[in-house]
């Protein structure tokens, strides 16, 4: 993992999931991860598009692989 990806991974894992179902958590994790990844990518020179893709994938995985007892940010905005 590149050194610039470590802060991105920390942000995504810390904010990865809202909701109770795996689908809700994966969707919210992907959205949060893509936003954070685009910001980190723009700042680090990796590029916002690459950062968004990586962050979205990591966020979706983190959200889908955790449950409400692990991380709970509340009800998703679309519910």
Content of β-strand: under 5%
How many E-type strands? 0
Tell me, rounded to a whole number, the average pLDDT. Answer: 78
* Most strands sheet: none
Key words describing this protein structure:
single chain, mainly alpha, 0% strand, elongated
Commentary on this structure:
The protein has 79 residues and is mainly α. It has a domain at 20-65. 65% of the residues lie in helices and 0% in strands. It contains 3 helices and no strands. The protein has helices at 5-14, 22-44, 48-65. The longest helix is centred in the middle third of the chain and has 23 residues, at 22-44. The protein is elongated and about 35 Å long. The N and C termini lie far apart (35 Å). The model has no long low-confidence stretch (mean pLDDT 78).
Concise synopsis of the structure shown:
Helices cover about 65% and strands about 0% of the residues. It is mostly helical and about 80 residues long. The chain has a domain at about 20-65.
Fold topology:
Blueprint (H helix, E strand, L loop, with lengths): L4 H10 L7 H23 L3 H18 L14
């Amino acid at each position: 993992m590149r050194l610039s990806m470590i802060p991105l991974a920390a942000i995504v894992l810390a904010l990865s999931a809202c909701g109770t179902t795996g689908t809700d958590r994966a969707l919210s994790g992907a959205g949060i991860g893509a936003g954070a990844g685009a910001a980190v990518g723009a700042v680090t020179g990796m590029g916002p598009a690459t950062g968004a893709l990586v962050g979205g994938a990591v966020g979706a995985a983190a959200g889908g692989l955790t449950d409400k007892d692990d991380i709970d940010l509340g009800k998703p905005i679309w519910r």
